[in-house]
Amino acid sequence: MPNLGVPELLIIALVLVLLFGAKKLPEMARGVGRSLRIFKSETAKLRDDDDAEAQHHVQAQAQAPVQPQPQPQPVQPQQIPAAPAPALSAEEQARQLEEQAARLRASAASQADKPA
């Protein structure tokens, strides 16, 4: 954007006076000033909140390193053999999972059909 010189600023001021009138310009300037003050205070609050949150996060990390808790293993109805299985392709794995899901659905359906 080119630099605005004195002649350009005078033309802009003259256009504003003609458009809004001399009485409305001070009111508009006050409104713009209030808006800018509010905007600056809100952005300062956001920066302060971000700084406080970052300090809190750093302090929490420095206080005590969290050791991972062992996750309980889910109980499966059928035990997987202890011998390592040969590497299967994705299609074979998907087929085996589908068969296992079908068996589980069938056992769940048979248990639901039994009277309580």
TrEMBL record:
Keywords: Cell membrane, Membrane, Protein transport, Translocation, Transmembrane, Transmembrane helix, Transport
GO biological processes: protein transport by the Tat complex
Subcellular location, record wording: Cell membrane
This protein's GO CC annotations: TAT protein transport complex
Gene3D superfamilies found in the cross-reference section: 1.20.5.3310
Span list, region Disordered: 47-116
Keyword Transport applies: yes
Principal location listed in the UniProt entry: membrane
GO MF annotations in UniProt: protein transmembrane transporter activity
Compositionally skewed regions (Basic and acidic residues) per UniProt: 47-56, 92-102
Pfam families: TatA_B_E (PF02416)
Subunit record text: The Tat system comprises two distinct complexes: a TatABC complex, containing multiple copies of TatA, TatB and TatC subunits, and a separate TatA complex, containing only TatA subunits. Substrates initially bind to the TatABC complex, which probably triggers association of the separate TatA complex to form the active translocon.
Family of this protein: Belongs to the TatA/E family.
Function summary: Part of the twin-arginine translocation (Tat) system that transports large folded proteins containing a characteristic twin-arginine motif in their signal peptide across membranes. TatA could form the protein-conducting channel of the Tat system.
The protein's name: Sec-independent protein translocase protein TatA
